[in-house]
Specification:
This protein is mostly helical. It has 9 helices and no strands. Keywords: Membrane, Transmembrane, Transmembrane helix.
Length: 229
């Protein structure tokens, strides 16, 4: 049962197809750059074509238009930056910046008691803000969201030195490796943290419990990462 729940959470957050779709423009850029004797123009053109193809496929499959447009925009911005600077590694600069911004945004959402993991899963489950009225579930989402902050920090720890050293092929490889494998690990660990953080007898993420009565104080939401014992 836990395995099925974990898989459903992975599906809610995108699944392996989303990771493959994200990797297509990156592989296209690296392949074009290499095949064209380090031609940024060829790499950028193939990346945009790959991104446009993925966007068309997503729309055909009924994926959310906003997410599709944002993904294509990231590819186009990366291509423009690389063409303007003349540095192939700068194609990945936008991704470096978006990972840094994502880490800050996720951490901020936790501290503000609006953890993004709860927002994403709660919205996809049609709960709107009901999950926030469950103190135990809110606290569990806060704890599990730190796993996603760590995911972005791992990417930055890999991407930044490679970008600084101008390692284009290694950047493309890292982008491919740190998509679905890292996301899959993040889903598994965050789901484990989420389940372990809920008290015994809690009905689970699909059934938020009402806030406890005034005579029973609610558990305090966490304000930061919990250190291991």
């Amino acid at each position: 049962m836990a395995r099925n729940a974990e898989e459903s959470l992975a599906d809610l957050l995108g699944g392996w197809r989303s990771a493959v779709e994200t990797a297509v423009p990156v592989v296209a850029f690296a392949g074009g750059w290499l095949a064209g004797d380090r031609s940024i123009a060829l790499g950028a053109g193939l990346a945009v074509l790959g991104g446009a193809g993925v966007a068309a496929w997503r729309l055909k499959q009924g994926k959310r238009p906003v997410g599709t447009v944002v993904s294509l925009l990231v590819v186009c911005l990366g291509a423009i930056v690389a063409l303007r600077t003349g540095r192939a590694e700068d194609f990945f600069l936008v991704r470096v910046l978006t990972n840094a911004a994502s880490a800050l945004a996720w951490a901020g959402s936790i501290l503000l008691r609006w953890p993004f993991l709860g927002l994403v899963v709660g919205t996809l489950l049609g709960q709107k803000g009901r999950w926030r009225r469950d103190p135990a579930l809110l606290r569990a989402y806060q704890l599990a969201s730190w796993v996603w902050v760590f995911q972005y920090l791992v990417r930055l720890a890999v991407f930044v030195p490679l970008w600084w050293a101008g390692q284009v092929l290694w950047l493309a490889t890292a982008q491919a490796v740190l998509t679905w494998p890292l996301v899959a690990a993040c889903v598994a660990v965050s789901w484990w943290v989420l389940r372990r953080s809920l008290p015994d007898g809690h009905p689970g993420i699909r059934h938020p419990s009402p806030a406890p009565s005034a005579g029973r104080p609610a558990p305090e939401p966490v304000e930061g990462p919990v250190s291991g014992s």
